[in-house]
Amino acid sequence: xxxxxxxxxxxxxxxxxxxxxxxxxxxxxxxxxxxxxxxxxxxxxxxxxxxxxxxxxxxxxxxxxxxxxxxxxxxxxxxxxxxxxxxxxxxxxxxxxxxxxxxxxxxxxxxxxxxxxxxxxxxxxxxxxxxxxxxxxxxxxxxxxxxxxxxxxxxxxxxxxxxxxxxxxxxxxxxxxxxxxxxxxxxxxxxxxxxxxxxxxxxxxxxxxxxxxxxxxxxxxxxxxxxxxxxxxxxxxxxxxxxxxxxxxxxxxxxxxxxxxxxxxxxxxxxxxxxxxxxxxxxxxxxxxxxxxxxxxxxxxxxxxxxxxxxxxxxxxxxxxxxxxxxxxxxxxxxxxxxxxxxxxxxxxxxxxxxxxxxxxxxxxxxxxxxxxxxxxxxxxxxxxxxxxxxxxxxxxxxxxxxxxxxxxxxxxxxxxxxxxxxxxxxxxxxxxxxxxxxxxxxxxxxxxxxxxxxxxxxxxxxxxxxxxxxxxxxxxxxxxxxxxxxxxxxxxxxxxxxxxxxxxxxxxxxxxxxxxxxxxxxxxxxxxxxxxxxxxxxxxxxxxxxxxxxxxxxxxxxxxxxxxxxxxxxxxxxxxxxxxxxxxxxxxxxxxxxxxxxxxxxxxxxxxxxxxxxxxxxxxxxxxxxxxxxx
Length: 632
Ligand code: PRX
Known about the structure:
By secondary structure, the protein is an alpha/beta fold.
């Protein structure tokens, strides 16, 4: 068999050098063990690769399905395994985090240094009364302090709720309100394309709507003047200089099933859902999957170019690399600032060996041509990764050829906020097909079902489902267990409904097609129609609104909004701009509709539900499908 990165009937085989490093046999063994007895195989990984204060008595408790529990009775803390044990080992002076600011400032934290900062900030939070189970909202840019804040919460057994720094006033308010956080951590601003994102101002406005917050801790990053509310707002650096900021506090032992974090994500209807992840299972799942898929080793420099505010950042900028004792790079700014080779410059200067990013970023950088990457030495790269949406074969090939020099395999990882960890993905030894996430990982049982719940035929599009529980899975929707059951476990009883459609080919490879619900992926960011529509109708000119995603060459999808105006309001171009800005102000710039059309009516069912499917079909010039329930 040809094995030199050569393409063969659509398959791309791994390079010999890649195979020589990857733990191919190990994975075969673990796959086999998972087939024989899935919970025992996970128990073996959990027991041999992690530290526990106390062992668990039941590996997988299915008695209250779909509220599955893992490592029940076990006591640990993700920080025990992400920091404490490394500080005791030779890794104490290894770089844990290499950070580069958009303004080229750099900072490196060894495991020991990171651990000290985390301990100091945890003792500050503890002095403020933060205890096990308390929720803390974090709203920051891509700076080391976001990682320190998250780990400090985890160390105390408190539950972090990170709100992506690209979200704005109402999105932040809703998430604070729902989590009932008493403490928020933010920054004076964030750098993006040479401009300041005024995080503190946005926080102040959100807090006028959310009364639960008593204390706001503010990291100084950009240095512009911000309002500091007396009695409520405190500077991070002042607190960290107090004698209470103790660099040596003990990590709090927690139950494996105790919550680690909430992360809000968009669903089909209603407000964003608070996905809840726990310490034990998530820890085991994140570390194992990162090791399997990216084969991260001690001499690697791992760069996940996502934002810490999304699940990709939680799992694979922060927790996964630290659990493996790896060196992880975080970059603050935009990929093309100040020039389109910023990423390739970073890759060269820091000797990045593994780069993990999203198709939208690849397509965006591809537009600038080959000369920008070609002027850099990218020879240290050995693996590439993709996540967030299907990668089109053209972008895949460019990434493979121009960035990976036909040498680096691309790990197209399919997973979700809810799954917590990679689910369907190649490993370095897997023969690849551009555009397919290939095969489920060990222990993951997926299927593609038709409307009746039977397995779809070969290459037939159907619902992507997962049939067995896995350690890193969400445990519930915080505060709404019923919605957890209804959203994920009701369409086909007993199996997890992903919300995606997919097909499976003759080699068993999975091709993810896209969402089957009202979730829209804009530049890989997950948005819900409901959140954007409610922002539109909160404007005084709008009576009703409907939004859909329409395909876009670079961003995957962009948002198109339809608005019915209040009687008497003029449908002007100025109003279009005002509404776009209004959505950016309420939800965030990523949610800004690309186009807004003023209409007299919206297609609705007789029960009054907007049929977005019909709007979408009209835009795409497709058949409107079954419109028998359409109100005439
Ligand atoms: O539609 C799938 C798409 O992203 C959704 C999950 O979004 P989110 O929870 O924001 O998590 C994104 C990062 C894990 C999925 O339901 N998606 C994610 N990865 C892929 C993908 N679609 C195709 N191929 C992928 N590799």
